[in-house]
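Hi there,

I know you've been waiting on this one. I reran it after we fixed the sequence typo, so this is the corrected version. Both the input and the resulting structure follow.
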Amino acid sequence: MRLIFLGPPGSGKGTYSSRICEQKGWIHISTGDLLRAGRDDPEHGETIRHYQDTGGLVPDDIVMTVLKKRLEQPDANKGFILDGVPRTINQAETLEKITEIDMVINLNMPDEVIVEKILARRTCEKCGNIYNIADITFGPNREYRMPPISPKVEGKCDKCGGNLVSRSDETKQLIEERLRVYAEQTALLINYYREKGLVKDVDVTGPPSIMVPKILSILEK
C-alpha cells in the first residue's frame, strides 16, 4: 500500500507511520530523514546542506528528485508511508509522475493540544526516538486523553541509551508559527487529494496504543 500521512506538527505523523510500517513491513519515509540522507548525495548534497544550514527550504525539484531515488529502491515495492512530503501542490503533482498513491490519512488535532504536546516532547539526540512527558486531558467531555510516553529510565532513550533533549526550535512562539504556516500551505493540499477521493480524516484523541489500531482499521477497510 502507498500512503501519505498529512497533519500539523505534533499530530503524530512520525509516531504512527513508523509503528504501522513496523507491523506491515512497509518503509517509512519522512522528509527529515530523506533530506538528512540527501546531504551525502553526490549530485544534490551540497545544495541540500546549504539550504538546511541557512534555515531555508530545500527547493521542490531537489526534494522530489531525492524522493524518487528512494522510491526506486526495492524495499519500497512492499509499501510505504510518506510523512511530511508532499508539502505543496507542485510536489503532489510531481509525485503523481513518480508513483500512485492509494490513500491519504489526514490527522486532526486542536492547536491547544498540539502546543502542549510539542512543548513536552523529548527527542533522543542519538537515534531520534521520541518521548513525551505531558499528561494531557482536553475537551468539554475530556475526549482528548494523552498520557505520557515515558522512557524506562528518566532522560535516557530505551532504544540506544542516548540523552533525551528538548529541541531548540520547539518554543511556544515557533510552534504557533509552524501551525500557522501549515494551515496556510496544507489546506490546498488536503483539498487537492480530497477531490481525488483519497482522503480519510482521523481525529487524534488518544495515545499510540489507541490511534495505531484505529488507523489500521481504516486501512483494512
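Quick highlight: The two ends are 13 Å apart (CA to CA).

Best,
R. S.
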